[in-house]
Amino acid sequence: MENTSAIKIEDLSYKYLSSSRLDQDSSTFKEVLDKISFKISEGEKVSIIGPNGAGKSTLLLNIAGLADEKYREGEIYVFGKKLDRKSIYDIRENIGFVFQDPNDQLFSTRVFDDVAFGLVNFLNKKDHSKAKDRDYIEEIVRISLKKVNMSGAEETIPHFLSFGEKKLVSLATVLSYSPRILILDEPASNLDPGNRNNFIDLIKNMEKTIIIATHDLDMAYDFSDRCIIINDKHIIYDGSSSEALTDSKFLRQNNLDLPLRFKGPKK
Ligand SMILES: Nc1ncnc2c1ncn2[C@@H]1O[C@H](COP(=O)(O)OP(=O)(O)OP(=O)(O)O)[C@@H](O)[C@H]1O
Ligand SMILES: [Mg+2]
User: Does 214 contact ligand 1 (Cβ within 6 A)?
Assistant: First the structure.
């Protein structure tokens, strides 16, 4: 029997509806992904790279079941289960998604509630007795915030955090319930060097399937042996990060640039 992939995507196409407000009949579609296919094994780490507007976030939203299925063609399987209207809630249980914009993630009036939300939801779904165990929830929230260097932020109002702090708290909201797959859209944007390095160490050493979309090619190089590069709706590369990310000509052709470590006086 074939080993079940954590994620399998077959001929995924996606388009957005862009309708004119003045004339409802002149709705047009913008195709963003065109017949994308790949597999990711359980425990594998992958970086999705590509210029602005390439379709990285759209791809990640589709995998997590957060995109409108009306505009999707092709199949997505998560641990062998086909993503559809029926399976979506079970599949989402296995996926922790961090949005590119942390303001899409944080909706509570206390950091504590945002970090506890996924965990309590998860425990409730499982009818787990710990769902009502206040001490347990507090302990997990404390540990999750500590992992992202935001210890003691429980009572803070998320709205008043800096953008980088919001990114860190957003990460804690998915670490709290430990899903089998993490999908992180630009997870390190606006993080200072210390927090960025702490974060890379954290996710690199997790025994989980993790996909990140990033413009930080140094991070992609450090984080994953495999990268998938998308440009103009298509996968243009799927393979070794160290090969693709040292090829300056190939990167420039695709509106990308060498990781910083390969630039500068020595090169
Ligand atoms: N909700 C939407 N409605 C219409 N078009 C959209 C929508 N979201 C994204 N798009 C368009 O789809 C294309 C792909 O967007 P997407 O956000 O997936 O790109 P990206 O690779 O994540 O870019 P970035 O690097 O800037 O985050 C862009 O041209 C964008 O304008
Ligand atoms: Mg994006």
Answer: no
pLDDT at residue 264 in the model: 72
- Which ligand 1 atom lies nearest to the CA of residue 18? 4
The CB of 19 under 6 Å from ligand 1? The reply is: no
Task: Answer positive or negative: Cα dihedral of 78, 171, 62, 71.
Answer: positive
For ligand 1, the distance from its centroid to the CA atom of residue 58, given in whole angstroms, is 6
* Separation of CA 52 from chain center: 16
Pocket mutation for ligand 1, best pick of 13, 29, 34, 58 (most atoms within 8 Å of C-beta): 58
pLDDT at 45 over 50: yes
- The residue extents of the domains of the chain are 44-62+92-259
**Which atom of ligand 1 is the closest one to the Cα of 55?**
18
Q: Is 54 touching ligand 1 by the criterion CB < 6 Å?
A: yes
Region 231-241: mean pLDDT is 96
Q: Which ranges of the chain does DSSP label H, i.e. alpha helix?
A: 56-63, 88-93, 111-125, 134-147, 163-175, 193-204, 217-223, 241-244, 248-253
Mean pLDDT over 145-153 rounds to 96
- What's the whole-number mean pLDDT along residues 58-72? 95
Establish whether residue 29 lines the binding site of ligand 1, counting it when its CB lies within 6 angstroms of any ligand atom. no
Q: What is the pLDDT of residues 152-188, one digit of tens each?
A: 999 999 999 999 999 999 999 999 999 999 999 999 9
44-62+92-259 CATH choice from 3.40.50.300, 3.30.160.670, 3.30.565.10, 3.40.190.10: 3.40.50.300
pTM for this predicted structure: 0.94
Going by C-alpha positions, the residue among 71, 101, 50, 90 that lies closest to residue 220 is 50
